Amino acid sequence: MDFSFHSHHFDGVQISGQESNDIPSLEAPSQGNGDFTMNAPTFNHFSLPDWARWRSQPAHMPPRQFEDCNFPHVADTETYDLGSFAQEPIGDPNGYLNSYRTHVTPAIAGTTLETLAPQTGDGHANWSLLQPSHAFKGQPYSVPQLEPYQPPPDSPSSPLSEVSSYHSPQSLAASSPATMNQSTDRLSPRSSTGDNREERPGHPPYSVLIYQALKDAPGHKLQLQSIYSWFEANTDKGADPNAKGWQNSIRHNLSMNAGFEAVKEEVGPGKKAVNFWRLTPEAIHSGGIQSTTRYRKLQHQKKGMGSGHRGPTHQPSQSKGVHATKVVKSRSTNSPRNERAEAYHHQIPTTNPSLGHEYGPTSLPVMQRYMQHPMGPVVGCHPMIPGNNTVFIDTMEPVSAFDVGHSHDWYAPESGSNRAQDPLEGPGRSSWDLEKEI
DNA sequence: CGGGATAAACATT
DNA sequence: AATGTTTATCCCG
């Protein structure tokens, strides 16, 4: 048996419980274990039940340890915390290439579900000590609440156990095959058919996991390889070195989910820029991401025909692949169909890429009302590269990276006006809506 | 059906 | 070859 996880209904899930208005940005505070209590008012407070819906089964998982890390193992009942936003990076020498390091999550015993607390430290000081939750590895995960905001730290940094050092995906794969054995339950190498439905209960969807990974990362951003590493370290997905499907899925989610955006950073004069995937400000603020499935909406309309046709299918689509790289994910076409003319965007200013990706109209369940926080500028810096300490400042203007046209539930800019800048979209509404009737 | 996972075609770098 | 983007399916609640 293998599993992978599968969970339904997660949209709206907010992984966090924060209510605060500010983002924990990199500067932070943190370290402490904040006890972030979630104050009730939070809209996104995620209550257990909600979260519970994700899992199909109650979970109980055997404790597992992983790789060389000695995780404090957490009792099954315990909840893992997703951790708070990481703050400072620590310099990771080559880190940025594979920067994700695993850290141990201190077990948070007894965390009540509802409060999912928070944990820890985030260390800014030690990225390596951050605790991530490897929580998804084999274990059921429990509510991941992220709380972006950190209350006053009260505890000094957590002592965390030592952490594993960082593993690059390759290294993980290569070096620790052994460790894997024990986990029988890791994700199974997907069968070719594609679905393994037996999945492990309890695992959040890729989008959430990715969110988690990014959330924990300095600057809330990671390179693709690092994300892979995170998965290997924290989930069962990467268990099989040979399996590549999960990576495809990760990429797919990164591309399709509006909560993630790619940003290019210059590394140095002659060198080529590096791409990072980062949480959009909205995602950070809201503490969660939305369903990745939004893209489907388009399809529907696009082919008017009923669905019947699915046969042979796969006709080469003309506009596949992609365009754009510089900017980061922009939804390129207004009309998903063919126009690819406008496919290219300009580069993304480092300041705020937000172009946006929006979700299909209406599809969002009502539940996802994300609140918008007036956030202040986000500033982050991550000295990951030795000679270059990159600093990024998000001047977050109220520009939203998301949903340009429909603001339904989740991002209701008070000032609705400023968002929009998607050149592609043009003022006002997004094309999606219009799209359909055409 | 909506939502998530996957596979895969195709584009860019 | 690694990344990214899109489509298309499958399957489950």
Automatic annotation (TrEMBL):
Record-linked Gene3D superfamilies: Winged helix-like DNA-binding domain superfamily/Winged helix DNA-binding domain
Residue ranges, annotated region (Disordered): 14-39, 138-204, 298-340, 412-438
One annotated Gene Ontology cellular component of this protein: nucleus
Alphabetized UniProt keyword annotations: DNA-binding, Nucleus, Transcription, Transcription regulation
UniProt-annotated location(s): Nucleus
Positions of the Fork-head domain: 206-299
DNA-binding region: 206-299
InterPro entries the UniProt entry points to: Fork_head_dom (IPR001766), TF_fork_head_CS_2 (IPR030456), WH-like_DNA-bd_sf (IPR036388), WH_DNA-bd_sf (IPR036390)
MF (Gene Ontology): DNA-binding transcription factor activity, RNA polymerase II-specific; RNA polymerase II cis-regulatory region sequence-specific DNA binding
Compositional bias segments (type: Low complexity): 157-169
Polar residues composition-biased segments: 15-39, 170-194
Main localization of the protein described in the UniProt heading: nucleus
SUPFAM superfamilies (alphabetical): Winged helix' DNA-binding domain (SSF46785)
Protein name per UniProt: Fork-head domain-containing protein
Annotated source species: Penicillium coprophilum
